[in-house]
């Protein structure tokens, strides 16, 4: 496989155009068109009824809460709300779709023409929203016995209809242009910001790893400055924020390589692979299905009147952008710091940690530093690490009062990540507090000095930095000892003052 | 024939309530009648002897316990096999659903059971309700009790034949383009297509969702009205169901029986008559119109110019919707599965199943509908047909400014011979010429016997504005009061 260029090099020759289609499973108690529960992870085919199984004769009845949630999403994205619109049937055959059509919306979506602002590297980009519409989710297929987990080559397939009929909102951006080499980061920042927005609205649990937030990424390249858009690919299965960024970057590089050697980009659906960060072709749109959309005759039109829409507008909470502006003041954070926190998905965590008593700057350092690293290592969102703001605040307090060193604080975090637990209990049970007991430390220091007389002599002679190996020896003897304390004790015993 | 099967539904219910006869006796008499004649008529696909007797015994127990009985408690009914019945086979006349046992009841099934009506079994029909003769049943044709060599109409021909042959006092049909009214007409009984949304569609296996309506069959207008009141009304499980009470149709039937139509404006629709209609049908129709005038009605003529396009519009809309509604029959979840040998692909199994499971008329309509909805053709076909539909509704609205009801023959023909038209789809489709406009407009219409031609029944169609179903019943009942019941007086004995 050819080595692919970095996106920065590509953008000298090509302008990327990206577009994102995001599917959000709403967190309603019941499904879109029937009363079945929507709990994630239930035994297969236990949350089903004649309606969501599409049994002959059954009919859909719309979930009013789902319609309200969609309108609230539209309002939060500054969209226009249709005063009259219809559901449509999207017809195609697939076994995880019980009726072999999906009830969706086509040319009459509930919400249109909005926007969402995102900031990357100090630059704010307005991502325009084309439409927000409501549809039903499909079931889930499990293809067994094949190499790829896809239907081709599978030995048999299992279908779980628990997910069939869960309300799904599709949010489609207009093509985003002019982002250059930042396109991958902007794509990621958009999904991050959208997720925060949806979370603040309380309409979905927006868990990408469970599929309640799913992303398709469209990418095309146009020759730099030409303004002529290229053929786009549509990458599916992009199931984490990091993957959004990687998928865009990979597609930019792949398409540039094709165009450079005079080949053409095929309009097709591609699949993203988390393991190697690449995309591979799926179904080609050039032989694409004709979905034969037509208005869903089993449902009457949706006609949200102005009064209803205004009542819903009044239920909108403080949205993430407003909240960040307010928190920036409360946390004393700069724009750059706020942007870093937003893009790392830790604004709320930092705010909550500060609210639990920690100095905001330290809360930020922990969440953007060690905790973000650990989350990244585990491919988790910081919020999903299992470490609470209260725990972090307690660790910060213990560090500040000297009971823990920063390194010990990290060890407490490691314990929480492994096994959970109360911070003070962990510190006590594992003996993690800084040992400042002069007897134990003094004895270890005496032993270290006795064992390495030559080094001791150098320090005594004024080469203070030579003390390092002695500090190491003491800490090997007393692991929980704080390095600064050890250093002070050693220097005192050696008759020199610490600098 | 037992006296009991000769009785109408209202009479049976009164006799049971009075203790003159038990519901079980009534049910046994009808089961015996089925045993006796259904080998010739072949109205039923499935007779539920045990279930029917159980239901009858429950009515008798309720009566013995002094509980209130509904106005049709204990009356035997024939259910069209397109209506889902929990625990009873439901095939919609198709091989593709052979062996499927539904796990739930349609709303009208539940209402019928709750009313103490005794469901005798499931009746034959054109496959997925597509047809006008019941010859498109995947199982066997049904024979018209008036002449066993002729069709009983369709698609609800099993129910119409069962009621006409005294196998059941009541029947349920469904009407998409005339499938209640035309079978009622050609078997000499009463059949009503309610206002769209007046009767729940929940549990009706869909043919064309924006047109399908279930409705009652009876040998008298009052019997049909009483059944209409049982099955009608708002259903939260059907979004297109109208949140309104059932129109007072039984009262209207009783009112009409006084045979006084003074002040009622009756309009003959110019476009529903003339060329292509059998002379005997037109003669019976004219006589019925004269009767209405004699009963005090003011008779006028109206023109509904867009009715001429109803057939073309219908044969785009109904196939389009059916192409989507029938997509679910793919062998994956229920019903027939063909070719699943562990080697063939999913697509192959789906297409082999559909190839083997659907009959030629169903395939024809799926193909027409798939084409009409295709990208690039939608506007010219489906879109245009919807515009015609709007124009037809406007024709109705204009006509109803001048008249309280519109009348026409229910069908241009009397029952034709089995096999006569089966190879000519257009000759079959024109059976619905008179009934299609009310289907497309979603307005109510009834067919009531209005005489004989060549010794075979002719029906009068009475059409009313949406939610004014009671007007249909009133006018039909007045005609019936004057004409009497053809079945009890003139039907040949089987």
Briefly characterize the structure:
The complex is a heterodimer of chains A (499) and B (494). Chain A is α+β, with helices and mostly antiparallel strands and 499 residues long.
Structural commentary:
The complex is a heterodimer of chains A (499) and B (494). Chain A is 38% helix and 19% strand. Chain A is an alpha+beta fold. In chain A, strands 2-5-6-9-1-10-11-12-13 form a nine-stranded mixed β-sheet. In chain A, strands 4-3-14 form a three-stranded antiparallel β-sheet, with no helix packed on it. Chain A has a two-stranded antiparallel sheet with strand order 7-8. In chain A, strand 12 (268-273) and strand 13 (278-284) form a beta hairpin. The longest helix of chain A is centred in the middle third of the chain and has 20 residues, at 241-260. With 494 residues, chain B is an alpha/beta fold. Chain B is built from 18 helices and eleven strands. Chain B has an eleven-stranded mixed β-sheet, with helices on both faces. The longest helix of chain B has 24 residues, at 379-402. In chain B, 63% of the residues are buried. Classes of the chains: A alpha+beta (499), B alpha/beta (494). The A-B interface holds A 50, 53-62, 89, 91, 93, 95, 98-101, 151, 157, 159, 290, 292-294, 297-300 and B 83-84, 90, 92, 97, 100, 102-104, 106, 201-206, 208-210, 236-240, 320-321, 323-324, 327-330, 332-334, 346-347, 350, 370, 373-375, 378, 382.
Please supply descriptive tags for the structure shown above.
heterodimer; A: 499 residues; alpha+beta; 17 helices; B: 494 residues; 18 helices; globular
The most extensive interface, with participating residues per chain, is: A-B, 30 and 44 residues
Beta-strand portion of chain B reads: 5-15%
The counted number of beta strands of chain B is: 11
Largest sheet of chain A: 9 strands, mixed
* Mean of all residue-level pLDDT scores of chain B: 96
Question: What percentage of amino acids of chain A are in beta strands?
Answer: 15-25%
Widest β-sheet, arrangement of strands of chain B? 1-3-2-4-6-5-10-11-9-7-8
Distance between the termini of chain A: 56 Å
Shape of chain B: globular
